[in-house]
Amino acid sequence: MTTINTQPLDRPAIEGDNYLTHSRGFLSWILTLDHKRIGVMYLVSVLACFLLGGLFALAVRTQLLVPDGLIMDQDQYNQAFTLHGGIMVFLVIIPGIPAALGNFVLPIMLGAKDVAFPRLNLFSYWLWIVGAIFLVVSIFAGLDTGWTFYTPYSIDQNSAMGGVIPAVTGAFLLGFASIFTGMNFIVTIHRLRPDGMTWFRMPLFLWSLYATAVIQVLATPVLGITLALLAVERAFGIGIFNPALGGDPVLFQHFFWFYSHPAVYIMILPAMGVVSELIAVHSHRHIFGYHFIAWSSIAIAIFSFLVWGHHMFTSGQSPLMNVIFSFITFSVAIPSAVKVFNWLATMYKGSISWNTAMLYGMGFIFLFLIGGLTGLYLGTLATDVYLHDTYFVVAHFHYTMMGSALIGFIGGLHHWWPKITGKMFNENAGRIAFFLFLIGYNMTFFTQFMLGSHGMPRRYATYPADAGFQNYNIISTIGSYLMAISFFMMAGYFIASIFGGKRAAANPWGGRSLEWQCSSPPPHDNFSEQPAVGDCYDFSVLRWDEATQGYVWREDVEHPGHHTEEAAHA
Amino acid sequence: MSSKNHEHGAVGHIVPIKMLVGTCLALLVLTAVTVWVAKLDFVELRMHEMNILVAMGVAVIKCTIVGMIFMHLRWDRSFIGFVFVGSILFVAVFIGFALLDTSEYQPSIIPGDTPTIQQKLDALDTSMAAGAVSGDHGDAAH
């Protein structure tokens, strides 16, 4: 097939000819089949949920400022941390990168017009919305089981705990939305890759989305069936997980973590893919160890299914399985470390641009390193028994989930913001917000390592005044306020950019993957013809163009599209 | 190739009758192995509760044979067979590990309904305390 590059790198955005202005009206958005609009709708929804989940987090931190609790009673505290966890996991981090950024970028990176199943994509979004409504409604019903819905809390009919069935129904529907997105991505990557884009010429972000999609499709059904069983047990009193009825509560934890540990990688794998793009593009240097990074994504996806029992070391799980799961858990460190070393090697001797997106990429490496290394203590049986259910665990998973997965999402948002909106944001404001976030983040969560190792348990609304916990809690809470300020700053300069930002060039950062070959924002059909594919990490062919404020193809280097065009005419 | 046959409107790929019979026999033998393994006491052999893992391993092999030969995946794109067998493996790991664990921790469970467990634990404490005083190990503890 002839491949003609019809979208030169320096092509300016065409006024009135992009996906934002292609059609107008409310219905043109809510019934759209355009992956870009669906991605934007996901993005807005996820950010709204992030605000809600963040407010619950601030409430939790404010409560712990004083030993006796400042603003809530114990039941309200239980509800606050449950909703914080449930919203952040199911509505923010899991869909954040794949459904929002992935939906927008994946087809364009493939040079395709859309995902393989656009209607399924739209259905997935609305299913997600319905699931989100169910989950949020459970707030008013008093859900306070924690986001894990552990039995017997979630099946105790006599307790005041309500809202389990709406919350579980919500998570069930969100799971289906996740499966549909995963299926769509797998088929799109298999069937819609352009000529010349072999598996090992794909951008690494696509590799990570592919590995994520495999986990979504394989693991999420287990969550669905687990939550369905839980709802049936709670509604009809059938003994599945309730020991009083002959059920087994530890079995619930097996079922739950068989999904939820891979879900940790549903959260972080796409972030790792984003970071691979950020580090290479903003260092203007070919990614180091492409094949290793690609395969390590697949290896993480596979290992993720074999380590769920490390969440259950103190649950009553048998000593035999404890040893097996502890042993396998350490294997995950290998592909994770492979990625980190390759990112560092990519930066070495690179021409690093200190853009906000790059700062988040480097922040990811720093925070992920802390999150990963502290995970070793929790994977080790002897130390986990001591640290389990303390703030050490809270700190550890926030370093991986928030400090890594969410940072990847925010970094990706900065990276692709000019492509999504066609506008540049204020870089200086972005850098200030980043450093404010980094300081606030470490104040909040590093202190929690100390709290945990000193013995403060998680999920308690109060703590003894003479235990020496208060100072750490005060620092942690102040840190959370700094983070909140940084996020509001971020919202401010993003919104300001939409109304008054400079127009973005097609390629403001110097990327080589295909999304930087179409205008910012992209046209409705992305590309009028299939774009030419080259090495997506060879940045030597680009140069900065002052006139367009973006990167353009060097005149002395032949463009692969021109070559194929000539061949077609020959 | 089956796909070529489909293109010409002919019947799909035909598996030789010998292979079908051989597959059937293999499945029967593997079923016998499953039954035999169920009767073995691995704990007595100091191999923990391995019945589940062995049974799941046999089940994976049987699924693979059925998928590859009876469902003709062997003659289709190898990736489809890989996905099928991979999915079955994950199911086996999930069920195998979960049930292995369940059978392993059964001996450590204190029998009885939840509300009565605390009474049993209290009784256990009392008898232990009495035993410590008298130097006698009471039966109530067991």
Task: Produce a short descriptive summary.
Chain A has 570 residues and is mostly helical. Chain B is an all-alpha fold and 142 residues long. The termini of chain B are far apart.
Provide structural commentary.
The complex is a heterodimer of chains A (570) and B (142). Chain A is mainly alpha-helical. Chain A has a single domain, classed as Cytochrome c oxidase-like, subunit I domain (Cytochrome C Oxidase, Chain A), CATH 1.20.210.10. Chain A is built from 16 helices and 2 strands. Chain A has helices spanning 26-30, 35-63, 74-109, 118-137, 164-191, 204-236, 249-283, 290-303, 319-329, 333-347, 356-379, 381-387, 391-421, 427-453, 470-500, 560-569; strands spanning 542-545, 550-553. Chain A is globular, with a radius of gyration of 24 Å. Chain B has 2 domains: 2-109; 110-142. In chain B, 69% of the residues lie in helices and 0% in strands. Chain B has helices at 2-7, 17-39, 51-70, 78-105, 114-134. In chain B, helix 2 runs antiparallel to helix 3 and helix 3 (51-70) runs antiparallel to helix 4 (78-105).
Topology summary:
The complex is a heterodimer of chains A (about 575) and B (about 140).
Chain A: H1 26-30, H2 35-63, H3 74-109, H4 118-137, H5 164-191, H6 204-236, H7 249-283, H8 290-303, H9 319-329, H10 333-347, H11 356-379, H12 381-387, H13 391-421, H14 427-453, H15 470-500, E1 542-545, E2 550-553, H16 560-569
Antiparallel strand pairs in A: 1-2
Chain B: H1 2-7, H2 17-39, H3 51-70, H4 78-105, H5 114-134
